[in-house]
Amino acid sequence: MIFEIDHLLRKMGRRSKTPLCFVTAEPYLGHFGLGGVGKSRRLMEDEFAEKDIKALCSATVDEIIPGRVKLNDGTELPFNYSMFAPPFRGVDAIINSGLGNPKGWLMVDEYYRLPKHQNIYGVGVSVGIMPVEPTPVPTGVPKTGNMTTNMAKLAAHNIAADIQGGSKIAYPVTEIGVVCLADMGDSASLMVAKPALPPRQQTILKKKRWVRWAKLGFERYFMTKMKLGATYLPG
User: Fold this and answer.
1) Cα–Cα distances in Å, from 7 out to 3, 20, 56, 184?
2) Alpha-carbon distance 141 to 127, whole Å?
3) Of the candidates 53, 56, 77, which has an alpha carbon nearest to the alpha carbon of residue 66?
4) 10 Å Cβ neighbour count for 158?
5) Considering the entire predicted model, what is its pTM?
6) CA distances (Å), 186 to each of 5, 44, 53, 59, 207, in order?
7) How far is Cα 180 from Cα 187, in angstroms, rounded to an integer?
8) How far is CA 36 from the centre of its chain?
9) Half-sphere exposure of residue 230, counting CA atoms within 13 Å on the CB side?
10) What is the DSSP secondary-structure string of 82-146?
11) Rounded Cα–Cα distance for residues 208 and 205 (Å)
């Protein structure tokens, strides 16, 4: 989002009058909750430096008041516009049911079932994944739409096997790969990590203008597929 704001301000000729600051719990730029992906740290640090965007890592927020945010180290940041995403937690339904861990995440086996309740499946954001490594500020593993789609297909197959008979597919969440097309203002980056968690069999990270066009094309394809209910199509 901050790259998109930077790009818009430059198009308006107002970037030189508008300081930007990025606050993150990550230990470094490009960590992504995945321990980095290839050269992601270098790429992100170079992008922030070239675009003159200030970054504060390993940061937590103590208080947000009108026009100002206070960080855990005593830093105060004035702002005219800000957006902060609070730490993720599970939904109340899972927390109150006792099926998840204290944070409200479902811990599933390699079939996406709850080990103690094998008629209950979990996929996507509801699934808990252990962090890749300890960090000064706890940093969770992201669950992207691409990962969620892969989990859902596997769970659907296994649910059908429960009902109709047949063999299940075992594919632990830690082995699922991720493909991400990330907007970066006037360009975008392609990130492929298979599996998402290290050590990885394949890693691709490219920042190219064509990736932005590819994302626009995929968005139109995906939305059309959803409107038609053509879930059998790839992607």
Assistant:
1) 6, 12, 20, 8
2) 10
3) 77
4) 22
5) 0.86
6) 11, 15, 16, 28, 11
7) 14
8) 12
9) 10
10) ---PPPP---HHHHHHT-S-TTS-B---TTSEETTEEEEE--GGGB----SS--SS--PPP--HH
11) 10
At 36, list the tokens: 């980095």
Alpha carbon dihedral 93, 174, 171, 87, in 10-degree steps, equals: 20
Residue type, 129: I
Task: Name the helix (H) or strand (E) containing 157.
Answer: helix 145-164
Looking at the chain, the whole-number percentage of residues with pLDDT higher than 90 is 79
Whether omega for the bond prior to residue 172 falls within 30 degrees of 0, making it cis, is no
Distance CA 100, CA 225 (A): 33
Which SS3 state, helix, strand or coil, does residue 32 take? Answer: coil
How far apart CA 193 and CA 204 sit, in angstroms, is 7
Per-residue confidence in pLDDT tens, the chain, 235 aa: 999 999 999 999 999 999 999 999 999 999 999 999 999 999 999 999 999 999 999 999 999 999 999 999 999 999 999 999 988 889 999 999 999 998 999 999 999 999 999 999 999 999 999 999 999 999 989 888 888 989 999 999 999 999 999 999 999 998 999 888 988 988 899 999 999 999 999 999 999 989 999 989 989 998 999 899 887 787 6
